[in-house]
Hints:
This protein has helices at 10-16, 18-44, 53-66. The chain is mostly helical. The chain has one domain.
Amino acid sequence: MTEFKIQVDDKVVKDFGKDLLERFFQDFYSKALLKLAANEILKDWDDNETQDNDWKIARERAWKKHGKYFINVIANV
């Protein structure tokens, strides 16, 4: 594992607080891990499973509503 040390200006720490900044960095790291996991899932995705008509309709609706295809992942990290 690689350790990163980040220097943060004292005014930023004062304005936001140490706890909030720590949560921000931990949240960023958790999202990065989830993005990597999603990419691994997509590598294994079988396109034959996506050929049924219901899936195509749902995918088009998601595109129209959100402007992108997405995977909603919930995890406790």
